[in-house]
Design a protein that fits this description.
Blueprint lengths: L1 H12 L3 H9 L3 H7 L6 H12 L4 H19 L11 H9 L3 E6 L5 H14 L4 E5 L13 H11 L1 E4 L16 H9 L3 E7 L12 E7 L9 E5 L2 E4 L5 H17 L4 E6 L7 H13 L6 E6 H10 L6 E4 L1 H14 L7 E5 L4 E5 L12
Parallel strand pairs: 1-2, 1-3, 3-12, 5-10, 8-9, 8-10
Antiparallel strand pairs: 4-5, 4-11, 6-7, 11-12
């Protein structure tokens, strides 16, 4: 009976792949029930909801993962590519013909819909890219591909298009690192770049904004280094190193040089955090001396936020530690219409991962 249902579901996936992915991305039974009435095939929806709320056997987990991967390939493959990813040799031959293989992570919530829209644009523009798709999710670990498989694919392809990944709170289990953090650490994606630019047709208070925020994202506050020293007392460690501070500073100045930018602003709180932020500020200042044609300035983070919303045009390239950069790029995004209209990218020495700036999966507007 299970085999018969699976065959029927696979057949439906060809016509309704985005709805299959939608159910797999729902993080609760209530979300599944909101999506289910829109389906013309109730059996598939009911079976998928059972997968989400029950503890699966090994066989059921394998079947569920296969269905999600199949539906993802149906949405996110280019041209006639509807088969599993080719071996390494085939990928190499494809690149010789001018085509590029890119790892794709649809993400949670509206992520698959966004990736589908990107795919349609690629098809219309005849972009020579083939996608190797992996469903990666923290809210649905039963259906998720192993992180090791995703990392292996990105290591091979060097480039990834990533949807929004939800970040549920699993602190009660002792797990503090999110899937995003694990992926960044595995690939050493140390530089996050957010290009904040005004768009035509978006009505905002400030016009003509063109600012780049460069953020170090492998150390600092977002390192999952927290513990309860004694009941009721939490210690959160912020680690700043000279090596990584200098690396992100050099990245910011190299970016400014390559894109004809005139100024780099170091954002810090060294007036209070004299050792940690002081080290970051001094390394940025030291690296700036290697780029005499680019203006360098230092600005305390609280003053930066005020200046950003009152006189945003004074900023060109901004470089900041993890937490400050995260706050600043969201404020800057709000100046041009919100995080949903701003693109982000993360870089290591060998990899590039492109993703939305927003961390919200927007389940409230899913499939609307």
């Amino acid at each position: 009976e299970l085999s018969r249902i699976c065959q029927w579901v696979k057949k439906q996936c060809a016509s309704f792949p985005e709805r299959i992915v939608g159910i797999s991305c729902a993080s609760s039974q209530n979300q599944v029930e909101k999506i289910v009435p829109r389906f013309p095939f109730g059996v598939c929806a009911h079976w998928s909801s059972l997968l989400l709320r029950s503890r699966m056997s090994f066989m059921a987990r394998t079947v569920a993962r296969s269905l999600v991967q199949a539906s993802c390939r149906g949405i996110h493959s280019t041209g006639a590519v509807q088969t599993p990813p080719p071996p390494a040799a085939a990928v190499k031959d494809s690149s010789k013909e001018g085509r590029i293989t890119c790892t794709m992570i649809p993400g949670d919530g509206v992520g698959p819909e966004l990736m589908y829209a990107v795919q349609e644009v690629f098809k219309a523009a005849d972009v020579p890219v083939d996608f190797e798709t992996f469903f990666l999710s923290e809210v649905n670990p039963v259906l998720s591909s192993p992180l090791e498989d995703v990392v292996r694919s990105i290591n091979k392809n060097k480039v990834c298009l990533k949807g929004i990944l939800a970040t549920p709170d699993y602190s009660h289990t002792g797990e503090l690192a999110t899937m995003n953090m694990k992926l960044r650490n595995e690939l050493d994606l140390y530089a996050n770049v957010v290009h904040v630019v005004s768009l035509e047709g978006v009505n905002t208070r400030h016009k003509g904004i063109d600012t780049v925020v460069v953020r170090e994202q492998t150390e600092g506050e977002f390192s999952a280094l927290e513990h309860e020293a004694i009941p009721g007392v939490i210690e959160c460690l912020k680690v700043i190193t000279a090596q990584k501070s200098a690396r992100i500073a050099k990245f910011a100045f190299d970016y400014a040089t390559k894109h004809n930018r005139k100024k780099v602003t170091c954002v810090h709180k060294a007036n209070i955090m004299k050792l940690g932020d002081g080290l970051f500020m001094r390394e940025c200042e030291r690296i700036s001396k290697l780029y005499p044609r680019i203006e360098f300035e230092k600005m305390i983070v609280d003053n930066t936020t005020m200046q950003l919303v009152s006189h945003p045009h004074q900023f060109d390239v901004m470089v900041a530690p993890n937490l400050y950069g995260n706050i600043i790029d969201n404020i800057a995004s709000g100046l041009v219409g919100g995080a949903g209209v701003v693109a982000g990218s993360s870089y290591s020495a060998e990899h590039a991962v492109f993703e939305p700036v927003s961390i919200w999966v927007f389940l409230s507007i899913f499939m609307r």
